[in-house]
Structure formats: structure tokens, C-alpha cells
Specification:
Radius of gyration: 31 Å
Shape: elongated
Oligomer: single chain
Number of helices: 25
Family: Belongs to the TTI2 family.
InterPro entries: ARM-type_fold, Tti2
Number of strands: 0
Strand content: under 5%
Largest sheet: none
């Protein structure tokens, strides 16, 4: 065993960060020692340094690669002795713990932290340890057949380790660790589901591994059972915990928690309704803690997890959100995130948090109010909430980040075009959800669309104009009974945008061509609406509507005659 260790160490020193393979001493070690002796050797070793941990991981992996666990004459796997079985379980435990990402990745979730060369080195070492540990877990499947029932005692911790690397976007994941985790999880999820041990393992992870990390992060809005607290105690607005992150190990040491929760939530199928409802109360405090945190990366992750949490409710038809009265709690938690705007928040960070918060809020409302048993009261609550988002958040945020209500004689500007584009895209979504109720908000919506479409510098960022054209189409379709009153502003915006495209000689030809097609389509939708007036009252369309219908072609022709360049728009 000592010779195997020596060669493993030499290989690690010669090629740092690369998995050593093909150790001849492993053959001798495997023939002279049993699994119990292997574990004794690993357990007694000093693991205070990165190199020593890697040495033990490589030693154990190489040993098991050459270990023969079959009976003579190919009679199947050899049952392990009690000491060997315990050694295998201990190795699973140790490797699962070694695979977990280190606390050095906490800086990736801290907006104020500076990532030094030492931290980068520590992160690289953690990634390599994880790769080696996952490889060891994979090869430990070899002696698994010799265990009682062919099952380890610690399936939960093995799943926990694999779940950390189930998403290659996580900062600690590498191609090797992701691939190893994918192979591991494919096998283990199938085996544990088949053996009815999957959900007990998930329950153990949630109760014994994740919940303790949030024990000191209290939320007065919910009870200990994960329900709405109708008599919450007001906590100090600012306290020591705001400055001290030590009571929050999920932020400082166990930063992989969000990744594990995300993987677990992705495992629920509609037929797993009972298991999901049992675990629901375990998710709520952790997700709310992240959303309420003062760090935007954690807020963002919390909103993403909330959207994931609501998906099984929708798919299974569960009424647990209604039973726990948590709709308003989720709304109150997410809504402040919508205020993360420039200049206090950078445009990139704003796009991250808003890109998670708006879907989370809309998903909350849909889950609460758009179920198969939707009542009139639910419809009214849904419409009221959507209108609030549109007016208090989307339109006001658009005005905040884009000076779209310029002083007389000046031109609207869009210093944050990507964010303005994003807000217009969300306006389109909310407008489609509001349907005919969009009519009530035309006075606020049309100026937003007009100032964007008519901006002379809009072609510098075509996605902004594309989003404005799409939003205009949505408004026309959903507010069609009253859109005739605003045809002048809409026609002016579309015409101005078309002319600015004609004047632009330096933009992307493909993008501008796509924009022109979108403008043409928007105009055709407007024309269709104007030619088909809808009666608001029982006695038919208003006289003005009929007059507009009769003059549509004439009005369009007058615009073309005023500027021949518009002929392409009105074809």
C-alpha cells in the first residue's frame, strides 16, 4: 500500500490537476490487502493538505480498480465480510464528503468580494478533489454487489454529492466532474427509485443536511410548519445578522445548497404529488431566506428556485399553495427584487435578478389563481395583481431606466438598452395575460411604445425596436376595441421607426430586415383591427369607429404620399 501511495503522490506532483492512471503497484496492493485494510490506511492518513487528500483518493481508486470481488470460476460477486462491508460504506462516506465544493466558492456569490490568485488556486484545487472523489464513488460500485442487499448505508450523501455537479453552469463544476456526476446520478436515481429508497434519501437530505444550515435564518412571515404566519412578529429592520454572515453557513461554507435544491426540485413528477407535498414545508424557509438575502446572486437563485418549486404544484394539480396561504408571502418576498435597477444596481445584475424575479412572480400568480377550478374571485385577483405589476413595476421601471418621457423638444434616450428591451418583453407577456383588460391601461402603454419606436437612435440596438414592435402588436390585439383612438400615435411610431431604418447605413442588414418585417406585420394587425370595429355597447360600434373604418385606406395613402419611403411599410 505504501508503494502505491508513493507512486500516486509522485504522479500528482509531476502532473498537478490530472488524474493519474495505470499504477502497477495497485495490483500488488489489491492482492495483499483487503478493503478493510484499505480503509484503515485512508482513515489513518493525515488529510490536512490538498495533496494528501488527492493522494488518498487516487490510492483508493487505483486499489479498487484492481480489486477482485468475484468468486472463483465466475460464480458471481463475493459477499463481503462485515469489516469489508463497513469499509466500503466508510469509503462512500468519505468520498461523498470530499466531493463537496469548498467554501472558496462563496466569493462567486458575493458582489463585494475580490477574487485573488490564492482564491482561484484554492477553487482549482477543490474542483480537482471533486473530480477525484466522484471517480472514487463511481469505482466503488464495483464492491457494491457484495454488500447486504447490494445497497450502501448512505445513499443520501452519495446523491447529495452528485447533485452538486448536476448542472455544468455551477462555478465549481468542470467537464469531468459534470460527466462523472451524470453517470453517477443516472445509475443511482434509477436504482434508488427501483428499490423505494429514493424519496427517503431525498427526505434525509432536506431534513438532516439542508434544513440545519438555515436554522438561524428566521422569517416571521411563515410558521415552523411552512405556512403563512397571520400574526408575525416584527423583526428589527437592521440587525447584527445583516453584517455577520456566520449564522448563514449556506452563504459562507455550504454554498452548493442552491444547486442541490434545484436538482431535487427537478426530480418531482406529477405522480410524486404525495412526496412533494410532504417536502413542501422544507423548501419554503430555505427559498425565502435566499430571496430575502441582501446579496443579489442569492436573491436571483432564490427566485429561480421559487419558480421551480411552483412547477410541480402546477403539474400535479396540488392545492398546497392555497392551503398554506403562501401566495401573498411569495409576492411580498419577490416584489422588492423588481426594484433592483440602475444606477444603484448595474445593468448586468439587474438583468440577472429581474430575469428570475418576474417569472417567479408570474408563476406564483398563475399557480394561485389560474388553476382548473378558477373562480370569478380568482380571475379578479389575478387581473388585479397583473395590473399592479404592469403599472407599478414594468412601466415605472421602464421610465426609470429609459428617459422615455422627455422634456418638450428633446428626444427620449435609452442608456440601458438591454434592460429596456427586457422590460418591453415582459410588458408583452403581461399584456397577453391581461387580455381585454389591457384596454384600461392604453394611456400608460402607448407613450412607452411610441417613444421607443420613434427614437432616432433606436437602430443602434435593433432588439429594443423588435421588442417594442412585438409589444405594440400585443397591445393592439388585446385592446382592439379601443385601439382606434390611439391609431395616430401607433402609426406615427411605426412610420418613424421605418424611416430611421431607411436612414441607417451601418446596422446589421439581417437584424434590420427582421425589424422591417415585424413593423409590416404590426401595421397589418392594426389595419385588421381598424377595419373590423367591435361594439362596446349593445347598440353597435360608435360612429367614430365606423368613420375610422371607412377612412383607413385614405389615411394610410396620405402617409405614403407624405413620404414615399413609407410605401414599403404600407404594402
Amino acid at each position: 500500500m505504501d508503494k502505491l501511495r508513493k507512486e500516486a503522490r509522485e504522479a500528482l506532483v509531476q502532473s498537478p490537476g490530472k488524474m493519474p492512471i495505470g499504477f502497477f503497484p495497485a495490483v500488488a496492493a489489491a492482492s495483499k490487502s483487503d478493503l478493510h485494510q484499505l480503509w484503515q490506511n485512508v482513515a489513518a492518513y493525515d488529510h490536512s493538505t490538498h495533496l494528501n487528500i488527492c493522494e488518498s483518493l487516487v490510492t483508493a481508486t487505483s486499489y479498487i480498480d484492481y480489486w477482485d470481488g468475484t468468486l472463483p470460476n465466475d460464480q458471481g460477486p463475493r459477499p463481503l465480510k462485515p469489516a469489508e462491508a463497513k469499509a466500503v460504506n466508510n469509503l462512500f462516506d468519505w468520498a461523498s464528503a470530499a466531493a463537496l465544493p469548498s467554501s472558496d466558492f462563496a466569493v462567486d456569490f458575493d458582489e463585494t468580494a475580490e477574487i485573488s490568485d490564492d482564491i482561484i488556486k484554492a477553487q482549482n484545487e477543490s474542483q480537482f478533489r471533486s473530480e477525484l472523489a466522484l471517480e472514487l464513488i463511481l469505482v466503488l460500485n464495483k464492491p457494491l454487489a457484495g454488500l447486504p442487499n447490494s445497497k450502501p448505508e448512505n445513499a443520501a450523501d452519495i446523491l447529495l454529492a452528485g447533485a452538486c455537479f448536476a448542472n455544468k453552469q455551477n462555478p465549481w463544476a468542470t467537464s469531468d466532474s459534470y460527466n462523472a456526476a451524470s453517470m453517477l446520478m443516472n445509475v443511482w436515481v434509477q436504482d434508488t427509485r427501483r428499490g423505494n429508497t429514493f424519496w427517503p434519501a431525498i427526505d434525509f437530505i432536506l431534513r438532516e443536511r439542508i434544513r440545519p444550515l438555515f436554522a438561524k435564518t428566521k422569517n416571521p412571515a411563515i410558521t415552523s410548519a411552512g405556512r403563512k404566519n397571520f400574526h408575525p412578529q416584527t423583526l428589527p429592520r437592521f440587525g447584527a445578522s445583516d453584517l455577520d454572515a456566520s449564522p448563514k453557513p449556506w452563504k459562507t461554507t455550504d454554498v452548493y445548497v442552491g444547486a442541490v435544491l434545484s436538482w431535487i426540485l427537478s426530480q418531482y413528477q406529477p405522480e410524486d404529488k404525495t412526496q412533494f407535498e410532504t417536502h413542501f414545508q422544507l423548501f419554503v424557509p430555505t427559498i425565502l431566506a435566499m430571496i430575502d438575502d441582501n446579496n443579489l446572486p442569492f436573491k436571483t437563485k432564490g427566485c429561480i428556485l421559487l419558480t421551480q418549486l411552483l412547477q410541480p404544484i402546477q403539474e400535479s394539480g396540488s392545492d398546497i399553495l392555497r392551503r398554506t396561504n403562501l401566495t401573498s408571502v411569495f409576492e411580498d418576498a419577490v416584489t422588492p427584487c423588481l426594484l433592483s435597477l440602475p444606477s444603484i444596481t448595474s445593468e448586468d445584475r439587474s438583468l440577472d435578478i429581474l430575469g428570475a424575479a418576474y417569472p417567479a412572480l408570474l408563476s406564483t400568480l398563475k399557480t394561485a389563481y389560474k388553476g382548473p377550478t378558477q373562480s370569478e374571485r380568482d380571475k379578479e385577483a389575478y387581473t388585479t395583481s397583473l395590473a399592479k405589476i404592469l403599472r407599478s413595476n414594468l412601466i415605472s421601471s421602464f421610465h426609470h431606466v429609459s428617459s422615455s418621457t422627455p422634456a418638450s423638444g428633446s428626444t427620449a434616450s435609452f442608456p440601458h438598452p438591454r434592460l429596456s428591451t427586457f422590460l418591453l418583453e415582459k410588458i408583452t407577456i403581461i399584456t397577453n395575460e391581461l387580455g381585454i383588460h389591457t384596454t384600461k391601461y392604453l394611456q400608460e402603454l402607448i407613450p412607452v411604445l411610441y417613444t421607443t419606436l420613434s427614437n432616432p437612435f433606436g437602430t443602434a440596438h435593433p432588439p429594443l425596436l423588435l421588442a417594442a414592435a412585438a409589444a405594440t402588436q400585443a397591445v393592439i390585439k388585446n385592446a382592439h376595441p379601443r385601439i382606434w383612438r390611439w391609431r395616430g400615435e401607433i402609426l406615427s411610431g411605426l412610420s418613424s421607426c421605418w424611416l430611421h431604418i431607411a436612414e441607417d447605413s451601418g446596422g446589421s442588414v439581417a437584424e434590420l430586415a427582421k425589424l422591417k418585417r415585424e413593423l409590416q406585420q404590426t401595421l397589418q394587425v392594426l389595419k385588421l383591427v381598424l377595419l373590423n370595429p367591435v361594439a362596446i355597447a349593445a347598440d353597435g360600434p360608435e360612429p367614430e369607429q365606423v368613420q375610422v373604418k371607412e377612412n383607413v385606406e385614405k389615411e394610410f395613402q396620405e402617409l405614403v404620399e407624405a413620404d414615399a419611403e413609407l410605401k414599403g411599410l404600407f404594402v
